[in-house]
Amino acid sequence: MDYISHKLSHQPEDIHEPILVDADSPTRSLTWQEYASAVKRIAVGLKTAGLRHLDCVCLLSRNDIYYWILGDGVAAAGGIICPIASFAKVDEIVRQLQTVDAKWIFVEPDLLETTTTAASKAGIPPSHIFLFDAQIPAPADFNQDLTLSHLLTSDLAAWHPPSQDSTSSLQEPCVLLFSSGTTGHAKAVSLSQSALIARFNLHFKHGQHFPPGERTLHYIAQQHASSQSVHNYATTGAARLYITRRQDASSIIHLIQAYAITRIMVHPQMLEEMPVVLRHGGGDREMLKSLRSVASGGGIARPQALKEFQDLLQDPDAHVSSAWGATEIGFFPSSSKSQPAMEGYVGIVPPPSVGEIIIIDPETHFPLPPPSTGEIAVRGPTLFSHYTSSPSTTSSAFITNSLGTYFRTGDAGHLSPTSPPHLAVTGRYKAVFRVGTEDVMPEEVESVIKQLPGVKDVVVTSTPGRRSGGLEAMAYVVEEERGVLKAEAVVSWVAERLAGHKAPTGGVVFVQRIPRNGVGKCVRGELEGAVGLKGSRGFMTVREEGGVVSVEEEKRVEERLSRTN
């Protein structure tokens, strides 16, 4: 059975109850019956328009209840759906269209001009550009046949499952998701029908344990993998899904209260910001009383931040957890109120039937025993198959050792020696750099700096050091209140708590904001053009005498800041 037929075979008990709700305009909602009908009509309309087997269809839109309905409709027509970030610029769109060999595009009306320019450069004709007019009506002078609204009028009786096509295969790609691209150009992660069925089954099984009346709020941009899981929970009736375009902490708090939301996934920055909003008069903890499950994903959350958020929740069964995973993986360690993760760990490793997690030496690829720290490697039925148009990147992402073939996550961590084992994630090998002969994991230093009063956000990276060919740590810092912190105080704070080589002696640059993607991960490439605000400092030297740390600034600060990266 193909992915869409499998998904449609798992309908909720009441197919007339709303499963998808626009949290910004609640009169817009869809039942399962309306969802299934829309998927089939879109499939019929696309095939009538000329979509061929395995044609790639890209979608540029902000969050909407029809977002993954279109995705499922494309899959039901035998095509491949590939979301692209709505904020992408022309050159980025062109590069991504070419990477996935896109044949068709759906785009929100107010993004049409940018997308049309990109499509032209990528060789996609105007006749293959459809308007995703779910919220914003198509302009009167636009060909109305090339709209989502028109597709939704297609003849339902003409639909038949993709599995009835002799060309269909469960190993064929069905969804392409661009990875975060935080350290370079984003890669297109190819998910086969088989992998999507395995992911759906995992979500279905998990959702069966939800208490009645669960309501999920989703604000993270829907081009990310997390939106598929909450959509699956909705279509199986496990949890009604409220979708919003708002992304500020204050709005999220008010939406939680307005809809009595019980479940939400947040990125670490939102986890930090929501308590701050409440402390500064933006509401009180009573507004969060309905929450029972909060998962922080898209980065490593501070243990103290998790605890502070847990203290805000009133339901005795409420649980705040740190979720770990990746677009390529499809499964994650779990934790709950009854089975919490051990302190310092993100969750309990699932059974091998779901997915296998091992720790390897990043250089030799040999398996390491618990609790040795190494690179986290995984395998399982939910795993992606390859990176589209990048065989060399795919090859380097997998390793084969005495245990078999595994995907290298690039994350550093270790397993507990317990049964079942718990997983701890300690940093990113891909972001690790060396100062002298010693490794520095940016996440470790960031975690320490975030504990300094007055720090709102921070990213640690490397910069060319004072010794030829060497590197030093450098911190980009956003203050809660401008002009309060001193750069020297940031350096000494780290030096007093970590080894001296981990202190940001390469510079502390105060900035207005840290560029982050839809799941809160820093887009490090955009930091290169950051301009330091007043108070930023260049090279500094840490001195320790009698247990007392002092910091001295190097001369020619202005010259140093002029080449900040």
Automatic annotation (TrEMBL):
Short name of one Pfam family: AMP-binding_C
Every AMP-dependent synthetase/ligase domain range: 18-387
Domain of life: Eukaryota
Protein name, entry field: AMP-dependent synthetase/ligase domain-containing protein
The organism's taxonomic lineage, starting at the top: Eukaryota, Fungi, Dikarya, Ascomycota, Pezizomycotina
GO molecular function: CoA-ligase activity
Ranges for domain AMP-binding enzyme C-terminal: 444-521
PANTHER family linked: LONG-CHAIN-FATTY-ACID--COA LIGASE
